[in-house]
Amino acid sequence: QNSGSPGLSVIGQNATDITTRRMAVRLLMELQDPTAGDALFAIMNSIPVTSTDITLREIRTKACFGLADIGDPRAADGLLEIAKYPIGRPFAANADMEAKQAMDKLVRSPGAAARVKDGLFELLPRADFMRTQILLALGASGDAALGPRVAQYLTDEQAQEGAARAVARRRYAAGIATLRGQIRRPANVRMDQQTIQNEPLYIKRRNAIRGLAWSGDARLAPDLMRIIEDSADEPRLREDAGNTLATIADDAAVQTVAQRALDTTKPADVRRCYLLALRGRSTPLSATQLVSGYLKPGEDVNLMRFAAIAAGFGGDDSTIAAIRPLLS
After folding, report:
1. Could you tell me the sign of the dihedral formed by the alpha carbons of 266, 272, 277, 282, in that order?
2. Which has the higher per-residue pLDDT, 5 or 218?
3. CA distances from 119 to 51, 52, 79, 123, 138 (A)
4. Per-residue DSSP letters for 54-118?
5. Banded model confidence at residue 284, pLDDT cuts 50, 70, 90
6. Distances (CA, A) of 136 to 75, 144, 202, 232
């Protein structure tokens, strides 16, 4: 327990001077003391949700945020109310920013999103300015039944990012199938050069590729490798494909990635993306292979760096033995 919490709790609940009370609650929030949960909950509930007083609303918001920051699920309803507040109040000071902060805390607080998922769905069509954040929270709710309701937003360019992550996180097969279609480069569009015309397509594909990282589905590996090896595709998307591949690859896919990373017949940019996919996923075997394959005189310096980092994640004593002579 933080030594300042009891005193701040008393002041936050009982001070008659509102400025003193606000300061005490702010400090209590910043302490993130788990034992202050009851006090923060009491402070939050002492101020009506309907209050329009700016200072009182600030105290209620900070108490709610403090409750969320210590992982107390009782913050959930308060966070939802903060998220709702800007709707119909276009001139409410800081309301939009606080609403988005509330949604972020719903995602991060264990069990919070699940407690208010019905309210989130009710809010979804009314809050254009934070639809992505709401979808991210729904994805964190753990409700497997939300897939069809969320998937409809995969075609909404303002909400696709959140919808992609939500359907992938919930392993919703139909939604993942839609994402697989969205990550593909249209056959009649070259994307190896960045253009204004291609930007909407780039964003759509980027969101889909990054969303699939939450699926944990190694069966998607061939789709991602196809992007990596497509010389007509957007370099940034090829790197995103490598990063997503790192999160979904199983042991068999990791070995395939390592073999391709070591294939000197492949262009350097392709091998670099495969090396990205090995960060955090390389095995002792692949790490040692990377050391012998890349950390040698005459090799591309950038590839050497990527290989060294990938090897560092998965190395064991044999990898260290292979690296040590290179460090002298």
Report:
1. positive
2. 218
3. 20, 22, 11, 6, 10
4. HHHHHHHHHHHHHHHHTT-GGGHHHHHHHHHTTTT-TT-TTHHHHHHHHHHHHHHSTTHHHHTHH
5. confident
6. 18, 14, 21, 32
Tokens 């920051």 — which residue?
69
Give the helix/strand (H/E) hosting 276.
helix 268-277
Banded pLDDT at 186 (limits 50, 70, 90): very high
- Both tokens of residue 120? 């989130």
What is the C-alpha to C-alpha distance for residues 2 and 33, in angstroms, rounded to an integer?
6
Helices 76-84 and 54-69 pack at an angle, to 10 degrees, of 140
CA distance 271 to 290: 11
pTM for the structure as a whole: 0.81
Contact criterion met (CB below 8 Å) for 223 and 183 = yes
Using only C-alpha atoms, what is the Rg of the chain? 25
